[in-house]
Design a protein that fits this description.
Number of helices: 8
Bound molecules: alpha-D-glucopyranose, magnesium ion
Strand order of the largest sheet: 5-4-3-2-1-10-11-12
Order of helices and strands: EHEHEEEHHEEHEEHEHEEH
Oligomer: single chain
Structural class: alpha/beta
């Protein structure tokens, strides 16, 4: 897919912050349409991918799907931020995520909870599980809170449980990135389809929930600046972009 990347040297004035699976990726025709629209604009739109995947997995998806290289990449449900032409890890964010983080205590708290299996991940910047429905996830949440183990709890798609450091999550990571790289008054759109996108959809910028979203996003209250698309995936992003910015 052809798409001209933004220059990240000066501050960004237009930006799409989007989840990948089920949002930016999932409807190839819609994605082509969105990228064609962006290519036709005078002022480029910087791309920030905000994914639950780990870095290698995100790179694999970008390659397999032929996605444009992002200007900024946020992985591991907002616990890692990569910037610059080589997409190097942001050490300030990494440091912030390691404060008070006790992955071993999280793993220990999960022991013996039936229906919870640990995801195999390359590192322990987050501790994630597959949950057999919501009950095992909730049991873990209660234990972590009961034992005062610092954490952020995220449940998505009726199955994925992400335990993140306190202050982690897609919303906090995106807020950090916007503060560093984006001009005040920039045109911003945030896009997502599942529970791990909830906090970034709620940080206060124009946001779109694509039509194929998971039921857990149905509860988000209607507000000005929150657009519910009638189209799935990237087609829904385009619909919202036109709604907000023409
Ligand atoms: C992606 C990740 C998985 C995570 C899930 C929800 O599927 O691969 O590790 O639990 O997103 O955030
Ligand atoms: Mg998704």
């Amino acid at each position: 897919m052809t798409y001209t990347r933004c220059c990240t040297v000066r501050k960004i004035r237009r930006l799409l912050a989007t989840d990948l699976d089920g949002t930016f990726v999932g409807d190839e025709d819609g994605l082509r349409e969105l990228l064609r629209h962006y290519d036709s604009l005078q002022e480029p739109v910087a791309l920030v991918y905000v994914t639950g995947r780990h870095r290698k997995s995100a790179d694999g998806l970008i390659r397999e799907e032929g996605l444009p290289a992002p200007d900024i990449l946020i992985t591991d449900v907002g616990t890692a931020v990569f910037t610059g032409p080589g997409l190097e890890e942001d050490e300030v964010w990494k440091e912030k995520m390691s404060g008070g983080w006790r992955p071993d205590a999280v793993a220990e708290a999960a022991r013996g909870i039936p229906g919870l299996s640990r995801q195999d991940l390359p590192d322990d910047r987050r501790v994630s599980f597959y949950s057999d429905g919501p009950a095992p996830a909730e049991a873990l949440h209660e234990r972590l809170s009961g034992e005062s183990i610092p954490h952020t709890f995220i449940f998505s798609s009726g199955r994925d449980v992400d335990i993140l450091p306190e202050g982690g999550g897609k919303g906090e990571a995106l807020r950090y990135v916007l503060g560093q790289y984006v001009e005040a008054g920039a045109e911003i759109l945030v896009a997502g389809d599942s529970g791990n996108d909830r906090d970034m959809l709620l940080i206060g910028h124009p946001a779109v929930i694509v039509s194929n979203a998971q039921p857990e996003l149905a509860e988000i209250a209607a507000r000005e600046g929150l657009f519910r698309a009638t189209r799935p995936c990237a087609g829904g992003i385009l619909e919202a972009w036109r709604h907000f910015y023409g």
